[in-house]
Amino acid sequence: MKPIIASALFFTSLFTPIALSQAPPPCDYKTFTQSIDHFGTNNNTFQQRYSIFTEHFKPGGPILYFIGEESTYLDCANDTILYWMAEELGGMAVSLEHRYFGNSLPFGNASMEVKNVKYLTLENVMADGVAFVEWLRTSVPGAQDSKVVIASGSYGAYISTAMRQNHPSTFFAAISSAAPVRGFIRADNSSNGHNPDYTLQAFLIASFEATMKIRNAFTVMHDAIRAGNGDTVQKALNLCTSPPNNESVIAVLDQIYDTAITLTLQFDYAQSRPGRIPIAHSFDLMLNHSIASSEPLDILEYALSLFMGDDPLPCVNWTDFPSIVILLSPVIQRQTFSYITCAYNPNAVGTMGHPRVFANNPHALLSWTSVIESCKKTYNVTPLTEDVVWSRFKISPKDLDISTRIIFSNAEYDPTSGQAPPAVPLSDDVCQSRVLWTNGMGHREDLFAPEEGDKIEVVKTREKELEILKTWLALCEDD
Ligand SMILES: *[C@@H]1O[C@H](CO)[C@@H](O)[C@H](O)[C@H]1NC(C)=O
Ligand SMILES: *[C@@H]1O[C@H](CO)[C@@H](O)[C@H](O)[C@H]1NC(C)=O
Ligand SMILES: *[C@@H]1O[C@H](CO)[C@@H](O)[C@H](O)[C@H]1NC(C)=O
Ligand SMILES: *[C@@H]1O[C@H](CO)[C@@H](O)[C@H](O)[C@H]1NC(C)=O
Ligand SMILES: *[C@@H]1O[C@H](CO)[C@@H](O)[C@H](O)[C@H]1NC(C)=O
Ligand SMILES: *[C@@H]1O[C@H](CO)[C@@H](O)[C@H](O)[C@H]1NC(C)=O
Ligand SMILES: *[C@@H]1O[C@H](CO)[C@@H](O)[C@H](O)[C@H]1NC(C)=O
Fold it and tell me: Is residue 362 located within the same domain as residue 323?
């Protein structure tokens, strides 16, 4: 069963466009002519989408550049923290879509064909950013000598970290929120420093009682199915069909509900975030409901319902696992992201497969053998191992220990924190990179534009990030 789960996770069929339950926020996008390959093996160009806000820009002020994430659409720069920072710093806020995502497709809808997708390399992604900045310098008056601060989150923070490390003279500083820079595949299968138990610990120390009740809910589900009472489970969870007494089926149900419950933590935001989770304070709601509930299976049902908003499922079709995964995080453009996992980001938590937190095998990691096989078969690509990623992109823990001007922002409510840099040694150099930890913060929550009702901890973290940037812009020398 393991290979089936892993391949479903990584290779859900994604040519079909993913319907967001709500249209993306409005944005006046523009496009910029970008090279398909910055290294001369294809001299054609494509149109790369960006957004720009210069109303607060003063000549010489910083370029605050948001790197598009693995999403079906580009975040408008005014929907990011950078717009607020631009106002505070006399800067311009821009965002550039990641190549092969959203509308920035070098070969249109044939972009994912093997012969076309080969230009999706981290080297090209980084060079896109350099070319974009060079073009901004010539096209926006007063920007010739502007310092550039890049920011992004999650997979995007892996890129922002690599960009600062590999192109330090272009990218003066970086905000890398929820940066998964550890815990990649290792050639010798050794333990890779990813802390899968991080997530369980976050649950336990948020509410011991709720965590035990959630864990019990899984046990109740397992026991009922194993006792041949699939019908009871079907009714309580609104499943389309009754689950048979079959360990593979139990594993699929575990994965569905474990993912949903884990995502209530990861996406615990102070605001509704369609595409991630349509309800605010999902983790708090999940914990409160678990404590109050007297029906164990109701806890599992509730978790999934939080993702449906006003659009409840007629029934949960557990035989169609890939669709449920998409439903749980529609904003991710999965096929492209799967390719990236194969090509240069061998992320041990993959696109959705966080190690299970509550299910019967809390330490289960995805089967890398099956991922490697799928990468070879689908794209003729062998995933890089951790040591290669670290040395090629200069992001090993040793490199980051001596890095400068990267803010690593880690959130308490985020499984990715189990993969993020835990610390940077103390130094007398104020320009040294810093790690910030924020209690009660969800996955890259600090990067959203400030809004009324935001968590006080997140507000404080944004203010801290702004002061760090002011200090670096004033006191640190160019590389
Ligand atoms: C961002 O700017 C766009 C125009 O580019 C505008 O339509 C939209 O309302 C703005 N969003 C916010 C949050 O201000
Ligand atoms: C790209 O252009 C360069 C310079 O004109 C040329 O040397 C190279 O052969 C071209 N590459 C391809 C693949 O056409
Ligand atoms: C690609 O796009 C074109 C033009 O929009 C469309 O006619 C064609 O059916 C699409 N092909 C696929 C495989 O989706
Ligand atoms: C790593 O584990 C896989 C099975 O998951 C095995 O095929 C491979 O040989 C192992 N590699 C080493 C170096 O032990
Ligand atoms: C259990 O379910 C799996 C997947 O649905 C199926 O392939 C397998 O044959 C089933 N096993 C039994 C014993 O029914
Ligand atoms: C959860 O319960 C606590 C304690 O009763 C309450 O203060 C909090 O507002 C509740 N959270 C939500 C999101 O309803
Ligand atoms: C569940 O999904 C399977 C696989 O996609 C499909 O064949 C089946 O018709 C679906 N069942 C329901 C009730 O939607």
Answer: yes
